[in-house]
# Entry
Amino acid sequence: MAHFIRQLSGLQWVNFVAAVITIIGVPLSLINRAETAIGVTLALSVSVLLCLAWTLLIVEEFRYSRKARFAEAVGFIHQAIHELRDAWFSIQERDSADTVYKQIAASAKSISSAFSLITGVKCWVVIMDRYRWFHNLTQPRRGDRS
# Structure
């Protein structure tokens, strides 16, 4: 429940507070107006049904909001695949390394956007160029005396 409450937006908070007030207020007003045992029983029954309905509504909202995030992420994944395809064709056409790196970086950005949308937190994608990394480790730095 704590995880659910942390994910609520502003309008969802208003809805959540209104639901809590309704769940508490309706039973109290019905019980106060009930004059017989049948009236109290009816008030409690309505209150229980109302609580159950609100609980089911909250669960469904939570479930469908997750599905909506996955659906929105498909566009970013689709874009990432297109950028990787373009990078592959750039390599085949012997385009400059700068062009290929820009396309791969755009793909990584799309992938990180998709994961950020799905998880709800900021995600990063890092692609390490091992050749340049190894080359930089094995080459002496400027000013080094060997």
In short: The mean pLDDT is 77. The two ends are 62 Å apart (CA to CA).
